[in-house]
Amino acid sequence: MSKPLRLSLAIAAAEALPSAFVVFRGFEDSIRKARALGFDGVELALKHADEIDPGLLSGWLNEEGMEISAISTGQVYAETGFMFTDERPEARKKIKEIFYALIDLAADFGQLVNIGRARGQIGDRSRELAKGLFLDMLQDLCAYAGKKGVKLILEPVNRYEIDFINSVEEGVELIHEAGISNFKLMPDVFHMNIEDRGIASELIRHAEHIEYVHLADSNRLAPGQGHTDFQEIFDALQEMNYKGWLSLEILPKPDPETAAQQGAEFLLPFIQSFNQP
Q: Distance between alpha carbon 220 and the CA centroid of its chain, in Å?
């Protein structure tokens, strides 16, 4: 029987951008190291789908008894600058192709594709124009993803990184407006600590829309290294009857191995307690 709550670690290719928000780099070694620390799966932070060979990935996962929790796309925006709110036809075509390929990969690995900063900026345009461009792209991608059993999950990101959909409440409003069954929410408690009225209360209030959760402490270090109240968060997850992935997306400080170990040692007791019958 699968666990109600599972813990994942964000990883990337060895040649990932320096800005990639991951702890470990190099897929095979990262999967092995994550398993040794007690993680149930890994989140793939990709620039494009052909960064990884599906056959090799399947073998590494089977060997370690691991799963892919989701595919995240922050590097798509960081590398290309393409975004859902782009008005240029050629740029819209290219980001659509990139996401189609990531959806194809997710169909066999995780069934979830994150929409982070690739959703785009508003800039000096009207919010309604940017939102319309976003929703147009979203409808196309969700229609494609739906045929493959894949969901797109929107991550609200704080105002210092982007100017469009900063809070969980704003994300839920967009979900209601879109009205698409395979479009869900992916809260990140680091961003929530900046933007939301409360972490636990907002998780509970919007539980029906939440598909996946990112964990980090208030300083973006491993949980336990800042002032976030994780007992309150796990109490909220229990009240929500949340059954899904929690993924660790943190700075690799003081070094990757220490950061991953700190996160695992702090979080696994919470998860084990949550999963007890």
A: 15
